[in-house]
Design goal:
mainly alpha, elongated, 79% helix, 25 helices, disordered N terminus, Serine Threonine Protein Phosphatase 5, Tetratricopeptide repeat
């Protein structure tokens, strides 16, 4: 959908405004004033079509000064202020427009969008419902109401509104894409794929629809198709951190880890605060044996999510991989403070103590973890190893036998048990 068409949906037709807003003016002075207002609106619209918000704002501010009782002028200025992130003044202008003209559906739509950003979802719902009441054949009104309904968790009603918007303007690719996104949230993946595909038939170079269909195919384990759509999304919008992130996941699913890592690195370079990408990058670097860069990724993740126990745990594991047990211990302790009695975290802390040859602390941690998960073969093996290194061979053999019993395929348990038996002179 073109920028001009989107703007027209919420700003009205500016070139017809002087007669519609101000009525018949008499006298040269009034005609001159009308011409100035007309010129300001025209300049504002042309600036918006160029994507020049600064010039548009100047033009619409001038229009408001010239016509302070024009609801259209306030609505237009509010739209630009909202696009610039000036939420509070935008809301004031939308409210002023509605005081001057209560039955102004475009102003209700814009105020609804602004109230969503403010966090006033109930107010946004009220405004969007009013816009639909006033303009039941306006696709933008139905889309706005659908969005707000999705924010309050009423996905069925939201999908119905988006479906109505699509019915009103079936040639709008953006509406099909948005309906597809709602259907995907409802786990109606096949229906969502139909809508994304329709969007792409209408607008083949629609980067967002390629991204959405790529993510959906990733969920459906269709890696080849996911990669194709995500690569298309990146070709069309190279600055999309999300597209790089999901392409990384799809490439990992295909077994192309090196390329996956490169995509995730591109993602976090574009958006350093993208926590999920930092985490996935750290995990892949760790699996590829690059523990040093994994530590860097996980340190950034901990900065972004200091209250995430998994972030601390993952950083601790990467530090262990580097042989930095002393540095890993505070991370596992932080994870346990955030999620007490997690046997996995406690077991990892035990491994850290084991690596730094603090066998007593390691034994205590493994025993504590086993009270929570007594059937964990790895914990029994690690406890057996710690006991063996403390020369408590009888206790060690009991734990190693338990580990082998719980997981007969665990080769380390059988090997270590064999070595321990040999140490005791039991060769049979």
């Amino acid at each position: 959908m073109s920028t001009h068409r989107k703007l027209a949906a919420v700003l009205l037709c500016f070139f017809a405004l002087p007669l519609a807003i101000f009525g018949q003016n008499t006298g040269d002075q009034k005609n001159h004033r009308s011409a100035r207002i007309d010129s300001s609106y025209s300049q504002g619209m042309l600036a918006l079509q160029r994507g020049d918000l600064v010039s548009a704002r100047v033009a619409f501010e001038k229009a408001v000064r010239l016509a302070p009782r024009s609801p259209e002028a306030h609505n237009s200025l509010g739209w630009v202020l909202l696009a610039q992130g000036q939420l509070a003044p935008a809301i004031i202008h939308f409210q002023t427009a509605l005081q001057l003209k209560p039955d102004f559906p475009q102003a209700h739509i814009n105020l609804s969008n602004a109230l969503v950003q403010k966090g006033d979802v109930e107010g946004a719902l009220r405004e969007s419902r009013e816009s639909v009441r006033l303009a039941p054949m306006d696709s933008e009104a139905h889309r706005t109401l659908g969005r707000v309904l999705s924010f309050v968790g009423d996905l069925d009603a939201a999908a119905n509104e988006l479906r109505r918007a699509v019915d009103l303007e079936p040639e709008r690719a953006d509406l099909h894409d948005e309906l597809g996104s709602l259907l995907a949230q409802q786990s109606r993946l096949d229906d969502a794929a139909i809508e994304f595909s329709k969007a792409l038939r209408l607008q083949p170079e629609f980067a967002q629809a390629h991204l959405h269909l790529g993510v959906l195919r990733l969920q459906q384990k269709s890696s080849e198709e996911a990669v194709a759509h995500l690569q298309a999304a990146i070709h069309l919008n190279p600055q999309s951190a999300q597209a790089h992130y999901y392409l990384g996941q799809a490439l990992e699913d295909k077994g192309d880890r090196d390329e996956a890592i490169r995509e995730l690195q591109a993602s976090v370079k574009l958006q350093p605060n993208f926590a999920e990408a930092q985490n996935q990058l750290g995990l892949l670097l760790q699996r590829s044996g690059n523990a040093e860069d994994a530590v860097t990724a996980f340190r950034r993740l901990v900065q972004l999510q200091p209250e995430s126990p998994d972030a601390h745990n993952n950083l601790g594991l990467a530090l262990i991989q580097l042989g930095q047990a002393d540095s890993s211990i505070p991370e596992f302790q932080a994870a346990l403070r955030l999620r007490p009695n997690d046997s996995g975290y406690e077991g990892n802390l035990g491994v850290a103590y084991l690596q730094k040859t603090d066998f007593d602390s390691a034994i205590a941690r493994f025993q504590s973890a086993l009270r929570t998960t007594p059937q964990d073969a790895t914990l029994h093996y690690n406890l057996g190893l710690a006991l063996k290194l403390k020369d408590r061979l009888a206790d060690a053999m009991a734990e190693l036998r338990k580990a082998a019993e719980l997981d007969p395929g665990q080769a380390d348990a059988h090997y270590t048990l064999g070595v321990t038996l040999w140490q005791q002179g039991e060769f049979a």
